[in-house]
Write a structure and sequence with these properties.
Layout: E1 6-9, H1 17-29, E2 32-37, E3 43-54, E4 58-67, E5 77-81, E6 87-93, E7 99-101, H2 103-106, E8 111-115, E9 119-121
Parallel strand pairs: 7-9
Antiparallel strand pairs: 1-6, 2-3, 2-6, 3-4, 3-8, 4-5
């Protein structure tokens, strides 16, 4: 059973791509929190910051992680999620806060369909350490 604050769940293998796309766009524009369930079944709460298309026509969400399950605060980190079947969009919104999506994430997106109102994109060419 899902917690009452859940707005909706995107079911695995959903065939309604148009509605899914609209729901993800709206969640980003509305500054919604979402929960990502990783491959080890840990829940990560993230601020939805950007949504778009990566190479191979893959839909991706970029979020800023604010807890690591059961209210545990993680290191501040960004996540790019391309398995959107593992995302639960919450009713809760995060407080407005200015953040910039780092170039290593923003640079992987070929088209942004939604960016939250208080989010900037670092579109400079990313240079990894040691190169």
């Amino acid at each position: 059973m899902l917690p009452p604050e859940t707005l909706f769940v995107i079911p695995r293998g959903s065939s309604n791509a148009a509605d899914r796309d609209a729901e993800f766009k709206e969640s980003v524009f509305s500054r919604r929190l979402f929960v990502y369930v990783d491959e080890w079944h840990n829940k990560r709460t993230l601020e939805a910051r950007a949504y778009g298309v990566a190479p191979g026509d893959r839909r991706v969400l970029i979020g800023f992680q604010i807890d690591a399950d059961r209210g545990i605060a993680p290191e501040q980190l960004w996540k790019m999620i391309d398995d959107l079947d593992r995302v639960v969009i919450m009713r809760d919104m995060y407080e407005p806060s200015e953040r910039t999506v780092p170039s290593q994430y923003a640079g992987q997106v070929t088209r942004f369909d939604a960016v939250s109102p208080d989010t900037a994109l670092d579109l400079t060419k990313h240079a990894a350490e040691g190169y």
